[in-house]
Amino acid sequence: MNTEATPIVRVRGLRKRFGDNEVLRGIDLDIAEGEVVCLIGPSGSGKSTLLRCVNLLETPTDGTITAAGHDMTGPDADLDAARRDIGMVFQQFNLFSHLTILDNVTIAQRRVCKTPKDEAVAEARRRLAEVGIEGKEQAKPSQLSGGQQQRVAIARALAMKPRLMLFDEPTSALDPELVGEVLGVMKGLAAEGMTMLVVTHEMSFAREVADRVLFLDGGVIVESGPPAEVLSNPQTERARSFLHRILHPVD
User: Fold this and answer.
1) Portion of the chain with pLDDT greater than 90, in percent
2) For residue 135, what are the contacts with CB-CB under 8 A and spacing of at least 6?
3) What pLDDT is recorded for position 220?
4) What is the rounded CA–CA span in Å between residue 41 and residue 192?
5) How far is CA 223 from CA 41, 160, 214, 242, in A?
6) For helices 146-158 and 101-111, what crossing angle results, to 10°?
7) What is the pTM of this model?
8) What is the pLDDT of residue 200?
């Protein structure tokens, strides 16, 4: 992780309203190249909205964002070019049900990047092998488990060769026994130096993999620091209460 260079993500004064509801209330955030940042916090705290603003799936009400070398909030923003450099993995897998796994991973390469078919197929096979999906290229998504489908979704994003990966609670739709296989792929990406911004409730993943944990509540960053600091010794009552509920759900 290079903390001296220009941040790969820079957010300044980010605000987002939905009607009268201000979901983000002045977010400032820098992420260094190669850094893994986990966003935690209660439902409705603004985590997913922050993530979706970074690649402009949600348009900010106010503030500026640069990400992967693109001025996302500038008047001349080229969102197609930006989204080639910013991979996104959602809670739901968002695979095309009528296409094979191989076609799901090649379609964006061919349509957006105009990659020749043989090159797109070779890249798709490499990425599918990287996430542990060998021999399933001709299957349809419905023939795969949820964990396998999410790994295909990660392969699809990686096939675009992004500089930054965004993950919006990528394990929340999975049965508990399938969570580990997706987190394993994400751990591998982190080990290889991929810059990642991850919304998650998986505190063990945040503790093990994140360089930094941000606790959001009420649309603001309440705490920020190394995982051991934020997760083991939170400084605010809001963070302490949230973490107690997450880590001790039956108390």
Assistant:
1) 84
2) none
3) 97
4) 27
5) 10, 33, 6, 12
6) 20
7) 0.94
8) 95
Q: What is the largest CA-CA distance in the chain?
A: 56
Three-class secondary structure of residue 123 per DSSP:
helix
pLDDT band at residue 1 under the 50/70/90 scheme: low
Task: Please say whether the beta carbons of 74 and 65 come within 8 A.
Answer: no
* Tens digit of each residue's pLDDT (9 = 90 or more) over 54-102: 999 999 999 999 999 999 999 998 988 898 999 999 999 899 999 999 9
* Average pLDDT in the chain: 93
Closest to 150 measured CA to CA, from 88, 228, 108: 88
**Tokens at 44, concatenated:** 């409705």
211, 36 in Cβ contact below 8 A? yes
Give the tens place of pLDDT for each residue, 140-167. Answer: 999 999 999 999 999 999 999 999 999 9
Tokens 């080639």 correspond to what residue? 84
Q: What value does the mean pLDDT take over residues 222-229? A: 96
- CB contact at 8 A, 156 and 88: no
Amino acid at 37: V
In angstroms, the CA 85 to CA 101 distance is: 22
Distance of CA 49 to the CA centre of its chain: 12
Nearest to 181 by CA among 161, 157, 142, 153: 153
132: tokens are 């542990």
Q: How many residues does the chain have?
A: 251
Question: How far is residue 38 from each of residues 23, 200, 224, measured CA to CA in Å?
Answer: 19, 7, 10
Question: How big, in percent rounded to 5, are the helix, strand and coil portions of the chain?
Answer: 40, 25, 35
